[in-house]
Amino acid sequence: MEHIHIVGVLAAIMGIVLLLPLFSKRIEEELEGFLFVMGVVSVSVAGLWSWHLVLTTLEEPLAITAAVLAAGLLFKATCSKITAMTHAMVDKLGMRVVLVFLITGLGLLSSVITAVIAALILAEITSSFKLSRDIKIRIVVIGCFAIGLGAVLTPLGEPLSTIAVSKLAGEPYHAGFLFLFKLLGIWVIPAVAAMGVLAAIMVSPKHVDHTIVAHQHDSLRDVFMRALRVYIFVMGLLLLGTGISPIVDEYISNVPPDVLYWINIVSAALDNATLTAAEISTTLSEDAIRNLLLGLLISGGILIPGNIPNIICANKLKIKSKEWAALGVPLGLAMMVIVFMLLILLRTPGK
Questions:
Q1: For residue 350, pLDDT beyond 70
Q2: Is 228 a member of any domain?
Q3: Which of 65, 203, 318, 351 has a CA that sits 20 to 30 A from residue 177's CA?
Q4: Whole-number Å distance between alpha carbons of 266 and 141
């Protein structure tokens, strides 16, 4: 009876974590602190505190935080040169060719420079062009799909990949730095390249004014605060994932992989890193982990709240939810269907 009571309370906590940010602007803006507090509460309710958990929670976010800080400082020092170089390339090669390289490159590099910095570069370069608002939104939405997908390839890329690798570090997977690359690379890399090609097809400005638009850059304080927020965000997710693990072990581990794939379309409205912390467990099969993550990664680009790059770019370019959804919804649903069909076609017989 006590076990049922604990699971019930943990389920309530999970519901609060997933839904409250949708209804409270204040919590959405302070999501890192909210997740940390809820993570502490969930671990306390489950009675899972240990020195190992405390040390892991303090240590695991360090790598991605250091990557965000280092890349942020480098970008701050070079953002003007990157923007000018991009404009020069457009002069020589044309907008379409540059978009293929820009979006594909940022998508793949995001696993090293982090999704946060890749999104900042995308927003910076897009903002610097005198293009129509509609075209800028298309570039940003497609680019964020590419970044959200590509960042999963290493634990440095985004909180989702950091959490997934951390939670799969034990038996039987012993997940290391290249675990997600080996599991998802064959799916993610072609999808990122496809986003680059799609951007070139969908974006066709008749005239491009190469005058660089002046706008305010991040301060040094912004760079350090961004890194700190990432550190707290990942800490909160690690605690939350541990706290609600009894629910995962008892219920989610028994859900068929194909069902997990479609259930995670809720990632369109709910941060996909939070859902990863709630769902990933070593009790899941490799097929289930792959389907779960692919569902989260694709649907995370559909709406603004689904992924960190979306939030960064939407904030920088003042993109409204309806403007994002006009392209994000049909593109995301099309990708979900195509990838699902490929998952079925390429499935090993007997599975």
A1: no
A2: yes
A3: 351
A4: 18
User: Quick check: 60 pLDDT over 70?
Assistant: yes
Give the residue ranges of DSSP H helices in the chain.
Answer: 2-23, 25-29, 31-46, 51-59, 61-93, 95-113, 115-128, 133-150, 159-167, 179-202, 220-243, 245-250, 257-263, 272-279, 286-299, 308-317, 321-345
Q: List pLDDT tens digits, range 10-25.
A: 888 888 887 787 788 7
Kindly report the pTM of this predicted structure: 0.86
Residue 305: cis peptide before it, omega within 30 degrees of 0: no
Please indicate, yes or no, if residue 351 is contained in any of the structural domains.
Answer: no
Quick one: angle between helices 115-128 and 95-113, nearest 10?
A: 150
- The pLDDT score that the predictor gives to residue 351 is 54
Residue 221: count other Cβ atoms within 10 Å of its Cβ: 8
30 by DSSP, 3-state: which?
coil
Measured CA to CA, the distance from residue 234 to residue 65 in angstroms comes to: 9
Strand partners, 130: 209
Do 175 and 168 touch, CB atoms closer than 8 A?
yes
Phi-psi region of 47 (alpha: psi -120 to 50; beta: other; left: phi over 0): left
Domain for residue 29, yes or no?
A: yes
What is the average per-residue pLDDT within 165-179? 92
Spatial separation of the C-alpha atoms in residues 292 and 299, rounded to whole Å: 11
Q: Structural domain tally of the chain?
A: 1
pLDDT band at residue 250 under the 50/70/90 scheme: confident
* Cα–Cα distance for residue pair 149/146, rounded to 1 Å: 5
Tell whether 350 is covered by a domain. no
Query: Which two structure tokens, joined as six digits, stand for 215?
Result: 């706008």
Domain coverage including residue 39: 2-345
Closest residue by Cα to residue 278 from 24, 82, 13: 13
